[in-house]
């Protein structure tokens, strides 16, 4: 039986308060019909006796205490799903907006999902190639991982996101690959850019898009990532795709959460964000993973713009504590027109160590990445020293590091947005840069690898010498 | 006593008509019987925090009390198993609801069907005290489970040795008033109530971890408490994993409190494969895993630290040394904050409730080295990870934790960026246990160990001062003796303090080898002073390749043959002699 309630007793921001409500459940969906015939969707967010507080997705403008009727569905928000969603575009709450009609659904799913049992998970091991050296080589993305990109306003994260969508692929034989793209609070121009870019690259057929624009209602923005992840889980665990979910921009999402929380009159925590921001973000990010015995995987690359480039701001901070690493974009590199402006040192992929190397990418990958990190860290030391005493005063070793640093940034990190590098090409470029340094400085690579990949002649190993002694050219 | 739901706001619900519910009583809420706990009583209104998702609950649905506080099942079968924050077996949950966790599942911790090979330790007519071990059974290949009695009285109807499941009656205990209690292998305990002990003993033994910077510079005692604060990416979890794998505790309780699901999978996988160095059996056989990941309900996250502590105390009461790894206590504190916010309590510092310090104190004070009721000795060592907001150690959780722990391993973002692991900062970390443990170290490693340790810390302190100068004016300006300090400190930093968790030999290093390594580095320092006296640049010594060799000492020397270290001392002497020679000719 469907109950209808005429009128409301209070309107406050996006919230309606209904009185005399019976038999309605927490988190239930409702349909709000205006006198004009317009429909809006709502959700129950608090119940107290016969009072129900309902949030309205499309905003409360034009509503009065009397000009509407509310119908409760008796169930939480669900998304209709079928394989047909590939190639389609939806708004933030999962309604098709590409004019191709509605989805004939195979099944309906609650968009809130439920927690994956930790013992049913399978530990992620296989990688996703992005064709971008700084990611593939240094912070490899692994299937089932959540690896955010920390950017700042004005940096070229949109271009990077588009490049990842175009180029991302799983190793051959791993199965089919699809992308779910969720845009939250993006500007119209950016939305256009993405749509055009995917279309031109012919990638549209493997992409599902959920678009919530900057001027769309904030409540819908709170639903957007949930719809996207529900679609991704369906494509992965039912249809068997390896799904990469790109969510941009998480900062807009968190801000709409804050706006919504304050309109509910909740006690604010850090910087006005609600105290449950961590749990809320976790309920999204933790939906990445692989399940033992089921096909497919859900991998997430959320993108967020750090307010004022501050990595300690609650949004990047809490995100970093939940996700398995981060890719950090750097303002200085961006201003130096280095694309992609990935700051290699603070970037990290926690799952990388188990998904690279022999049997996955190439045997030398772990040691090489380790060595590049360690050597590049020394470049920074040499640079800061050069800044004080001048480049000429540096020791010969430090000068070598400066040379390596330059080669690494220009040859390895820098690439064009159309450049799609194979993993072997990425690794070889890394060795090329390292070969500027004398082999004695390469303390993270063992001798056999050095002999195989180092780009200069190395004297054969003297068998009389004990292992681990320094190598000389 | 029945009552009904009045209001619902996330995990916090209010009941009406329930005047008999006690504070902290466990309740079942709604038709699905979700598990909850009373957190406030006011007139006719009872406030309950629910441990499961409350979607779909309706006002007017029934709720009922269980008559007791939130309790968990204790007994054989905890080891080699995984539980959520309120000790429901996740394997059983998977059987009921598949890969995704459903709500309202009423599953216990222990397997009801499994038969254990029980040996009785009491006879008909024996006097039993609280804590008396009345039965034991091999729980895993490594650990024997001893059942401590929860009651006092005379034993009767004692069964014969044999195979029993956790529900089978083992014996009856008749107390002074004639009340009869049936004991099985299983008992329940309220998680927020510390289990009683005979007395607290002074700290005297270290928890050996095989991690050089911890064992040598900042040791932790059995029965002590340590905090590992660090920003994300600094390697908190890896340190916790390393300690769980290699520390010489008998039992490990690994608590994933509000952390990543994939991480728990990794622990499960790795600990199932890795062998306990003492017995050669999988590490999981001495481990209890609690996994309340960040997307599981927040109220259960709040309860999970008490669940972990209760299980730890239970094994302590059998006379075991237990280490409880809590990763991360900040998530617990945030759960407190989240629930406190929902209860509309007045926030104190940074939105955390004013009772945060007292809760932290209650938790850490449950650790300790105890003489337990059965007369044995056991300990609970607590190692809590802290995830400070923005990596800023001045935030309330870190600051308040510091007051209740005596070992503090501060992780450093800049060390982590330079891939220096473990990224424990040797300047800002400390351990107050060092004096308590001094007699033990001296009896095992000789008095000179402390001198070595002292010299190394002084060298590192001196270096950090010099590095400040070098940053400003470059290393060339320093006099030779200070250059030597920088060089030796570099060897110690890279060769000794850095430890490779993924390297076969380096992942665990016995104390004796740690001492030998210190000796070699200090030998290098002492011998190279000859060069300083003769104004020969240290660079020449480095050019002989001896430094690189000393840095690789951790990989190139076996853990069990310490004679090879003498070879290194000879090599140092030879290298110095050769430098001297080139300078005289």
List the keywords.
heterodimer, A: 473 residues, Elongation Factor Tu (Ef-tu), domain 3, 13 helices, 19 strands, elongated, B: alpha+beta, OB fold (Dihydrolipoamide Acetyltransferase, E2P), 4 domains, 10-stranded mixed beta sheet, 6-stranded antiparallel β-barrel, 17 helices, 22% strand
Structure description:
By secondary structure, chain A is an alpha/beta fold. Chain A has three domains: 4-72, Beta Barrel (Elongation Factor Tu (Ef-tu), domain 3), CATH 2.40.30.20; 78-355, Rossmann fold (3-Layer(aba) Sandwich), CATH 3.40.50.12240; 365-453, no CATH class. Chain A contains 13 helices and 19 strands. Helix content of chain B is 36%, strand content 22%. Chain B contains 17 helices and 26 strands. The termini of chain B are far apart. Classes of the chains: A alpha/beta (473), B alpha+beta (585). Chains A and B meet through strand 5, helix 6, helix 7, strand 19 and helix 10 of A and strand 1, helix 1, helix 4, helix 6 and helix 11 of B.
Question: What is this entry, summarized?
Answer:
The complex is a heterodimer of chains A (473) and B (585). Chain A has 473 residues and is an alpha/beta fold.
Secondary-structure map with pairings?
The complex is a heterodimer of chains A (473) and B (585).
Chain A: E1 4-6, E2 10-12, E3 15-18, E4 29-34, E5 39-48, E6 51-56, E7 68-72, E8 78-81, E9 89-91, E10 107-110, E11 127-128, H1 133-138, E12 141-142, E13 149-151, H2 157-167, E14 177-186, H3 188-200, E15 207-213, H4 218-238, E16 242-248, H5 250-263, H6 277-285, E17 297-305, H7 314-322, E18 325-329, H8 331-335, E19 342-349, H9 352-355, H10 365-389, H11 396-413, H12 423-434, H13 447-453
Parallel strand pairs in A: 9-15, 13-17, 13-18, 14-15, 14-16, 16-17
Antiparallel strand pairs in A: 1-7, 2-3, 3-6, 4-5, 4-7, 5-6, 8-10, 11-12, 18-19
Helix pairs in contact in A: 2-3, 4-5, 10-11, 10-12, 11-12
Chain B: E1 2-9, E2 12-16, E3 25-29, E4 34-42, E5 45-50, E6 62-69, E7 71-74, E8 81-83, H1 90-97, E9 116-120, E10 127-128, E11 133-138, E12 144-148, E13 153-156, E14 162-164, E15 171-174, E16 180-183, E17 187-190, E18 199-200, H2 212-217, E19 225-229, H3 236-246, E20 251-257, H4 261-273, E21 287-292, H5 298-316, E22 321-327, H6 329-342, H7 356-364, E23 368-371, E24 377-386, H8 396-404, E25 407-408, H9 413-417, E26 430-431, H10 434-445, H11 448-473, H12 480-497, H13 511-533, H14 538-543, H15 546-551, H16 553-556, H17 564-584
């Amino acid at each position: 039986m469907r109950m209808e309630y005429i009128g409301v007793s209070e309107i406050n921001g996006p919230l309606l308060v209904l009185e005399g409500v019976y038999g309605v459940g927490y988190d239930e969906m409702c349909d709000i019909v205006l006198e004009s015939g317009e429909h809006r969707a709502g959700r129950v967010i608090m119940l107290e006796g016969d009072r129900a507080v309902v949030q309205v997705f499309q905003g409360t403008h034009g509503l009065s205490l009397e000009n509407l009727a509310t119908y409760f569905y008796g169930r939480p928000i669900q998304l209709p799903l079928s394989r047909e969603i590939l190639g389609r575009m939806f708004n933030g709450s999962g309604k098709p907006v590409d004019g191709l009609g509605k989805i004939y659904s195979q099944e309906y799913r609650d968009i809130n999902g439920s927690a994956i049992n930790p013992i049913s998970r399978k530990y992620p091991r296989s990688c996703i190639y992005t064709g971008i050296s700084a990611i593939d080589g240094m912070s490899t993305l692994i299937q089932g991982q959540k690896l955010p990109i920390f950017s700042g306003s004005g940096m070229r994260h949109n271009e990077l996101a588009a490049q990842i969508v175009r180029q991302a692929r799983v190793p051959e034989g791993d199965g089919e690959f699809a992308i779910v793209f969720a845009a939250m609070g993006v500007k119209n121009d950016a939305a256009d850019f993405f749509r055009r870019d995917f279309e031109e690259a012919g990638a549209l057929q493997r992409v599902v898009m959920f678009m919530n624009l900057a001027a769309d209602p904030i409540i819908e923005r709170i639903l957007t990532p949930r719809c996207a992840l529900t679609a991704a889980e369906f494509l992965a665990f039912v249809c068997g795709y390896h799904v990469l979910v790109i969510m941009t921009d998480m900062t807009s999402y968190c801000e709409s959460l804050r706006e919504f929380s304050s309109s509910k009159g909740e006690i604010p925590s850090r910087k006005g964000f609600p105290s449950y921001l961590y749990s809320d973000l976790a309920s999204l990010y933790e939906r990445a993973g692989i399940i033992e015995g089921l096909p497919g995987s859900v991998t997430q690359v959320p993108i967020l713009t750090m307010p004022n480039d501050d990595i300690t701001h609650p949004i990047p901070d809490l995100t970093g504590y939940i996700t398995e690493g981060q890719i950090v974009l750097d303002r200085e590199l961006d201003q130096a027109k280095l694309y992609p402006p990935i700051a290699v040192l603070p970037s990290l992929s926690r799952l990388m160590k188990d998904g690279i190397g022999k049997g996955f990418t190439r045997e030398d990958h772990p040691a090489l990445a380790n060595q590049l990190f360690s050597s590049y860290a020394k470049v920074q030391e040499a640079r800061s020293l050069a800044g004080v005493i001048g480049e000429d005063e540096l020791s010969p070793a430090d000068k070598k590091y400066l040379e390596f640093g330059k080669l690494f940034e220009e040859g390895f990190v820098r690439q064009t947005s159309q450049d799609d590098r194979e993993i072997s090409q990425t690794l070889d470029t890394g060795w090329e840069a390292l070969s500027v340094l004398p082999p004695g400085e390469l303390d993270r690579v063992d001798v056999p690898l050095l002999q195989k990949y180092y780009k200069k002649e190395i004297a054969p190993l003297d068998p009389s010498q004990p292992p681990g002694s320094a190598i000389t050219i | 006593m029945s009552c009904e739901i009045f209001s619902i706001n996330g995990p916090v619900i209010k009941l009406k008509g329930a005047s008999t519910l006690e504070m902290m009583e466990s309740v079942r809420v709604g038709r699905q019987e979700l598990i909850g706990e009373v957190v406030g009583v006011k007139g006719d209104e009872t406030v309950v925090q629910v441990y499961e998702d409350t979607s779909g609950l309706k006002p007017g649905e029934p709720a009922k009390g269980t008559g007791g506080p939130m309790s968990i099942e204790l007994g054989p079968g905890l080891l080699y198993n995984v539980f959520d924050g309120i000790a429901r077996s996740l394997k059983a949950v998977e059987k009921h609801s598949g890969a995704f966790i459903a709500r309202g599942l009423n599953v216990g911790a222990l397997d009801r069907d499994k038969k254990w090979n029980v040996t009785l330790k009491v006879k008909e007519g024996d006097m039993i005290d609280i804590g008396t071990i009345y039965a034991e059974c091999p729980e895993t290949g490594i650990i024997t489970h001893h059942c401590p009695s929860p009651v006092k009285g005379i034993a009767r109807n004692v069964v014969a040795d044999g195979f029993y499941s956790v529900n089978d009656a083992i014996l009856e205990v008749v107390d002074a008033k004639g009340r009869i209690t049936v004991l099985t292998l299983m008992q329940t305990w309220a998680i927020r109530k510390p289990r009683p002990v005979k007395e607290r003993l002074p700290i005297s033994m270290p928890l050996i971890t095989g991690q050089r910077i911890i064992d040598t510079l900042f040791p932790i005692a059995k029965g002590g408490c340590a905090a590992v604060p660090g920003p994300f990416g600094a390697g908190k979890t890896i340190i916790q994993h390393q300690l769980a794998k290699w520390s010489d505790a008998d039992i490990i309780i690994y608590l994933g409190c509000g952390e990543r699901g994939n991480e728990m999978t990794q622990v499960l996988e790795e600990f199932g494969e890795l062998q306990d160095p003492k017995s050669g059996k999988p590490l999981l056989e001495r481990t209890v895993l609690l996994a309340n990941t960040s997307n599981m309900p927040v109220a259960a996250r709040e309860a999970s630290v008490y669940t972990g502590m209760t299980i730890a105390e239970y094994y302590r009461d059998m006379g075991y040394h237990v280490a409880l790894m809590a990763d991360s206590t900040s998530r617990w504190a945030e759960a407190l904050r989240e629930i406190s916010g929902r209860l509309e309590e007045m926030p104190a510092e940074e939105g955390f409730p004013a009772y945060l310090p007292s809760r932290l104190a209650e938790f850490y004070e449950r650790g300790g080295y105890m003489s337990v009721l059965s007369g044995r000795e056991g300990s609970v060592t607590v190692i809590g990870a802290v995830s400070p907001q923005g990596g800023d150690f001045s935030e309330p959780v870190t600051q308040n934790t510091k007051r209740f722990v005596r070992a503090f391993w501060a992780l450093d973002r800049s060390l982590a960026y330079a891939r220096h692991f473990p990224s424990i900062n040797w300047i800002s970390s400390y351990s107050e246990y060092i004096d308590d443990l001094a007699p033990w170290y001296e009896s095992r490693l000789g008095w000179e160990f402390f001198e070595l340790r002292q010299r190394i810390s002084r060298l590192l302190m001196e270096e950090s001062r010099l590095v400040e100068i070098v940053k400003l004016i470059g290393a060339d300006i320093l006099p030779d003796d200070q250059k030597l300090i920088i060089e030796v400190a570099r060897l110690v930093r890279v060769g000794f303090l850095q430890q490779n968790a993924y390297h076969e030999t380096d992942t665990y290093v016995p104390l004796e080898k740690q001492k030998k390594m210190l000796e070699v580095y200090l030998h290098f320092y002492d011998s190279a002073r000859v060069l300083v006296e003769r104004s020969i640049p240290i660079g020449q010594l480095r050019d002989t390749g001896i430094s690189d060799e000393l840095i690789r000492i951790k990989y190139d020397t076996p853990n069990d043959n310490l004679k090879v270290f003498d070879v290194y001392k000879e090599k140092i002497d030879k290298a110095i002699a050769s430098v001297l020679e080139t300078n005289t000719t």
